[in-house]
Specification:
By secondary structure, the protein is α/β, with parallel strands linked by helices. It folds into two domains: about 10-105 and about 210-305, Vaccinia Virus protein VP39 (Rossmann fold, 3-Layer(aba) Sandwich); about 125-210, DNA polymerase, domain 1 (Orthogonal Bundle), CATH 1.10.150.170. The protein contains 13 helices and nine strands. It has helices at about 10-20, 35-45, 60-70, 85, 105, 130-140, 140-150, 155-170, 175-185, 200-210, 210-220, 240-250, 290-295; strands at about 25-30, 50-55, 75, 90-100, 225-235, 255-260, 265-270, 275-280, 300-305. The strands form two sheets. A seven-stranded mixed beta sheet has the order 3-2-1-4-5-9-8, with helices on both faces. Strand 1 (about 25-30), helix 2 and strand 2 form a beta-alpha-beta unit. The longest helix is centred in the middle third of the chain and has 14 residues, at about 155-170. The termini are far apart.
Amino acid sequence: MEQISAHKPVLLAEMLKMLAPKPDGYYLDCTFGNGGYSSAILDSCNCNLVAIDRDPNVKARAEQFANNYQDKFKFIESSFAESFDKLGAQKFDGVVMDLGVSSMQIDSPERGFSFMYDGPLDMRMSNCGMSAADFINNAEEEDIANVIYKYGDETFSRKIARKIIEQRKLEPIITTGRLAHIVRTSIGFKKGKIDTATKTFQAIRIYINNELGQLAMFLNNVQNVLAENGRLIVVSFHSLEDRIVKEFFKEYAPKILARSKYSTKPIEEIDSQKWLTIITKKPIYPTDDEIRTNYRARSARLRAAQNMRNL
């Protein structure tokens, strides 16, 4: 069996507190990965869990879970946005999403997610479809610049795209090391906590895997699988994801209105389209202790809401 990298689930205690698993409840882990959230939920009480992941490399880990937890655990190989027809009529008491790239992906050079290791320029979570190398070597300069700017918030996106086009004419860009070098030489390399290639790699990964589109698609359908009082918990790692979650919660939560300017008792807006109660008025961040022991947790934030409608 393939060796699986150690992975520390982020905001684990906070996730469990928000989820509050109950015996015989049903829970959905939309991003199984190495199973950190799934095992914590299953071990918390005698509950049931369905896990989803589009990465075929996690199937060996899922098989271990199936052996350990028997009929309490089920795995579905799929992107979470395309999983609804596979979930059937089951309603879940809680849905959790950890939107970060797992350590088992980052720490595998052959997956091409990180410039920390020189490997094939791939970045595909599902191992199928267009790779990062396909995009970098075939897209128009303007398209490359737009992707790097839109998904990486990189102000030097046009300089980077211009350098990529220049260098791919000499030789196809097929490794993470070469792409990182091109980015650094195009805008300069400064010593510090954040490598200058970080934003470009993030942007290409998000684009290749349609991460924001997948998230929006799932959220637009999640009400169909949440039981009454079921909770939705999302852990995101950059502002683009967090903005989608925040705006989704805001859109479907009732507004609090005052009866009059003299009233001290506010009321909730009555709207059949409003079905969420926001639990976390502000996002929950990792503690300093967690960041010290798991540096990848530094940008994580957790938001939670609850289904207040009887389906």
